[in-house]
Fold this protein.
Amino acid sequence: MIIASLAFYLFSIMAVIGALNVIFQRNPVHSVLWLIFTFFNAAGLFVLLGAEFVAMILVVVYVGAVAVLFLFVVMMLDINVIMIREGFLKYLPVGAVIGVILLVELAIVFGGWTMAPDAKGFRVLPTPDMSRISNTEALGRVMYTDYAYLFQASGLVLLVAMIGAIVLTMRRRPGVRKQSIAEQVNRDAKDTVTLVHVESGKGLS
């Protein structure tokens, strides 16, 4: 139990530190790297909870796909960090007002928070017998039955995000040479290769 508690506090503290660095890092590439670090620590917490499938999905999907996609998009967008720093003080008052409004709203929400009468009953629901059903199968039954429509909606959101990333990175830029496969395939050897006859014992003048 002591080792599990120490591992929990270690993963929790590292996850909080990583999340804060995602917010406060000025370089977007560094923020994405800290985001990957946070995902790994969250996966460790899921392993401690016995949800090894969720931990694996978090590493494979979010770290291996989503976070790497974020990293490539940030690098392809070529974000000007100097311009971001210059506009920070300009929009600081507006951001401060919005932040105060959000804090007030959160205080109102948590101030009026009440526990539902039947919430305690959901907490004591029996867990499935792990000898008869695996963790992956139990999650699959819940995901594809009770939350099937939400699962499909999340897939549509990821599709829209992928299309948006492609549109942002494929915009026209002046002075950038692009590959034209059709021109390469249809080119003639006469237009690209020049044969030069050199007499024996003489070089090119």
